[in-house]
Amino acid sequence: MKFELPPLPYAKYALEPHMSKETLEYHYEKHHRGYLKKLRELIEGKPEADKSLEEIIRTADGPVFNDAAQVWNHTFFWQCMQPKGGGEPGGDMAHRIKETFGSFEKFREQFVASGEGRFGSGYVWLILDGSRLRLVDTPNAENPLVRNQTPLLTCDVWEHAYYIDHRNDRAEYLDVFLRHLVNWDFAAEQLQRATKR
């Protein structure tokens, strides 16, 4: 397959003041593009070049896995945010969050704690595991696909995701993500797709 850098779903300044254009530009143009470039170099002329990104993630290891997963993770992460996002979800997502976590506020607290507690780099995910929602955090490039779990939402907690805007305050960044950036419509689409299978 020919892997391309997908366009952002919004302008680079569209998430301001909650995520600066500088952060988004640096993160998307340098990090995401860099992982894609390395992946292309690693798989050129090899069997992986004919696989989908998801197939590579589920079967590869080492540098090929790392770069493929980071390309996928970043593409997913951009869709998990939107201009004028944040707040509480509605519909089935709201019901499931209340059922699993007790309340949206408890979900928010656990999401921030999970992301803040991830030592080093990685991601915090809201996933569908069987028929239940769960929060998981993963190290480095790892994502729920390797465990056959369905990602609904993620927040990147590598330092380059927040250091320009929040310095070393990861908890503040995670809180801002939920209050002002999260795209619950996208998460609800992932949930609906997964429950129709």
The appropriate CATH architecture of the largest domain is 3-Layer(bab) Sandwich
Biggest beta-sheet profile? 3 strands, antiparallel
Distance between the termini: 25 Å
In CATH terms, the superfamily of the largest domain is Iron/manganese superoxide dismutase, C-terminal domain
User: How many separate helices?
Assistant: 8
CATH fold description of the largest domain: minor pseudopilin epsh fold
Structural class estimated from helices and strands: mainly alpha
Low-pLDDT residue intervals, each spanning 5 or more residues: none
pLDDT average, as an integer? 97
Question: H/E series, N to C?
Answer: HHHHHEEEHHH
State the name of the first-level CATH class of the largest domain: Alpha Beta
* SS strand fraction: 5-15%
Total DSSP E strands = 3
The strand line-up of the biggest sheet is 2-1-3
Radius of gyration: 16 Å
Question: Fraction of residues in helices?
Answer: 40-55%
Outline, from the CA principal axes?
globular
Give the total of domains. 2
Report on this structure.
The protein is mainly α. It has 2 domains: 21-79, Fe,Mn superoxide dismutase (SOD) domain (Helix Hairpins, Orthogonal Bundle); 91-196, minor pseudopilin epsh fold (3-Layer(bab) Sandwich). The protein has helices spanning 21-43, 53-59, 62-79, 91-101, 104-117, 163-166, 170-181, 184-196, and strands spanning 122-129, 132-139, 150-156. A 3-stranded antiparallel beta sheet has the order 2-1-3, sandwiched between helices. The two termini are 25 Å apart.
